[in-house]
Amino acid sequence: MPSRCEIFCEILIAVLIPPLGVCLRHGCCTIEFCICLLLTLLGYVPGIIYALYAIVFVDRDEYFDEYRRPLYASPA
Questions:
Q1: Structural domain includes residue 67
Q2: Which of 36, 54, 73, 76 measures 20 to 30 Å from 21, CA to CA?
Q3: Where is this gene product found (predicted)?
Q4: How far apart are CA 1 and CA 19, in angstroms?
């Protein structure tokens, strides 16, 4: 589970560049990243709202596997 500092940094990045914040949390080429990228291209504010939702509320452990592990995750 990520620490509060990691979550805060992801939220800060998500406000500045929404797809990058989602990419750090869920990885690139995931459905969350694609949706966030599309919403950011259509409008900056919807991209921010979805990025915050994807970072805070979507449980990444449900989709977690060894090949899509984020960079900061410690090995089990």
A1: no
A2: 76
A3: Membrane
A4: 21
- Check whether 73 has a pLDDT greater than 90: no
User: Is residue 48 in a domain?
Assistant: yes
Q: How many structural domains is the chain composed of?
A: 1
d(CA 4, CA 22): 16
**pTM for the whole structure:** 0.72
Owning domain of residue 42: 19-61
- Residue 65 C-alpha from the chain's centroid: 16
Query: Under 8 Å CB-to-CB from 41, ≥6 apart: which residues?
Result: 47
Position 67: which residue type? Y
**16 CB-side CA count, 13 A:** 7
Question: Does residue 44 register a pLDDT over 90?
Answer: yes
